Amino acid sequence: MNLLHKNVVCFFEEMLSDLDCQDDTRAYIIGIYGKYKTANFDLSKDSVGLMFLEARYKNDFATYQNIADWLLYTTTYTPSHLKFASKDYYDNVAQLSYYSCYRLINKQWKLYEQLSNDYVILTDKIHRIFIKNGIALTPLD
What we know:
By secondary structure, the chain is an all-alpha fold. It has one domain (about 5-130). Helix content is about 65%, strand content about 0%. The longest helix is centred in the last third of the chain and has 18 residues, at about 85-105.
């Protein structure tokens, strides 16, 4: 694990230590912030709707996961970047993507179910934590 990744993960572990969810779900969410320390997974120039349709056509776990993870990251950290559709639209795409992950692994890992079912609640709580700590400056619409 490189130093930047370790520092980012440690920062978000501390920031989200009190997030009310299962331990593995919290660890997964913290890992998302480590994943987006670089632009390698940036979907800001892509249509998440078209990507979702492609994932659905191919039944592609990795694409569903990338869509949902990017939306969780963006919704909580930089929600102003989600400007081409409504918040409800993006929330629904993320929830359906996480549920598709859950379904594709034969419902064996409950964290995807929790991410799907509690997406709106979790992202709202995370965003409020970030606002309170001055690391997300834009409001959720």
